[in-house]
Amino acid sequence: MRIGIVGLGVVGLSTGVVLAEQGHEIVGVDIDQGRVHGLQCRRPPIYEPGLEEALNRNFERMKFSTDYSSLSDAEVIFITVSTPTVDGRIYLGYVFDAARKIKEVARGVIAIKSTVVPGTARKVKEITNLKVVSNPEFLREGNALHDTESPDRVVIGSDDKEAGDLIQELWSFTKAPVIRTTTDEAELIKYAANSFLAVKVSFINEIANLCERLNCDVNVIARAIGLDKRISPYFLSAGLGWGGSCFPKDTLAITSFARDVGEKLRIVEAAIEVNQERPFRALKLLKEVMGEVRGKTVCVLGLAFKPNTDDTRESVALKVVNLLRQEGAMVIAYDPKARSDVEMVTLDECITRADGVIIATEWDEFRGLEPKLRGKPVVDGRRVLDPAKMGQEFRAIGLGVR
Ligand code: UDX
């Protein structure tokens, strides 16, 4: 099949390379000339494990352009543009712009993969007069190719059976269970899934707060409750909270959408509030072990919003950095991939120069650092260190002082 992809970020590129691997012809379109040029030279604009290799393997079946007319004979066109938050609400302008441009040149079925609030696919249908399917993705950064090839489920929202069948056929190689729904339901499924996961993490983070008061260990609690199949062990790691390009944006989008239609998602709103407090928690623990931070050098280990990515969007680590600066600390940082305006140094230098250390992202290379860190004030914000190997000036999220 000839397949168009509009929006060449992590979702668009993962969709593109995975479908190219299945033998389809891919035409990728993006308004960002630099991005398109890079891809034409086989350079992906983002770091994602396996992406560059997959792009190279399938390069002869993939074309990239800024020109929408290259979509003219595509049978399916995925919309994978971003849907950022503006003034606390989802901004759908990029989706609608893409729809208008597609309408001018193409006749294929539109499949929306961007995360959009219920009713968006219906609006895109009104704009384009083409068949529109809602086909949300659930991929995690750092696992994007795997999650696209082997999803837990494929959701196909369609008010047109034939169009839905076509998209279902496209993903049949994944062998994943297929849920056929209306477009509104498919759009809501994505928000319900992400909100539930965000709630789960905020829930365990509240239990972590309680553990710190009770001299309990949240990891023990999480392990025990996670063995209950109804709860499951996933997304129960207490830490500095959730960041990234999805959870913060999507929880805001769905809570404001709910209010706009006259409902209040109280649990999701509470999860957001709990999450906003996490950087303050890190600072509180640091002050417990090193006193005031003013005039001192604090090393933040990890800036990415989670390991195995260079993405710092909505990263809690950067919120911690800002808090430390507001408190008058001098901040230095080390991250294997991510960069920011903080002074970046090597891991060893970061530890040597620091008066205090906060571990903000659970990169694998931070495990086993106990001998190097022992004796310094340290806050383990992601539970990567063994508390038994640390000294007195050590605090960890969800672990009371023993
Ligand atoms: C998420 C969803 O998992 C994915 O299905 C959706 O399509 C996009 O949003 P992603 O943003 O890549 O993917 O990150 P994910 O691995 O889900 O982690 C989200 C945040 O939660 C990270 O900041 C992570 O550190 C935090 N987290 C996750 C925890 O603090 N504890 C956990 O137990 C799990």
Summarize the structure in short.
The chain has 402 residues and is an alpha/beta fold.
Description:
GO terms for molecular function: NAD binding; UDP-glucose 6-dehydrogenase activity. Pathway: Nucleotide-sugar biosynthesis; UDP-alpha-D-glucuronate biosynthesis; UDP-alpha-D-glucuronate from UDP-alpha-D-glucose: step 1/1. The protein has 15 helices and 16 strands. The chain has helices spanning 10-21, 33-40, 51-57, 93-105, 120-128, 144-149, 161-170, 183-214, 218-226, 247-260, 266-276, 278-290, 316-326, 347-353, 370-373; strands at residues 2-6, 25-29, 62-65, 76-79, 85-86, 89-90, 109-112, 132-134, 154-158, 178-181, 297-301, 330-334, 343-344, 356-359, 378-380, 394-396. The strands form three sheets. An eight-stranded mixed β-sheet has the order 3-2-1-4-7-8-9-10, with helices on both faces. Strands 13-12-11-14-15-16 form a six-stranded parallel β-sheet, with helices on both faces. A two-stranded antiparallel ribbon has the order 5-6. Helix 5 links the parallel strand 7 (109-112) and strand 8. Residues 137-141, 194, 197, 201, 235-237, 239, 241-244, 246-247, 305-306 line the site of uridine-5'-diphosphate-xylopyranose. Uridine-5'-diphosphate-xylopyranose is lined by residues 137-141, 194, 197, 201, 235-237, 239, 241-244, 246-247, 305-306.
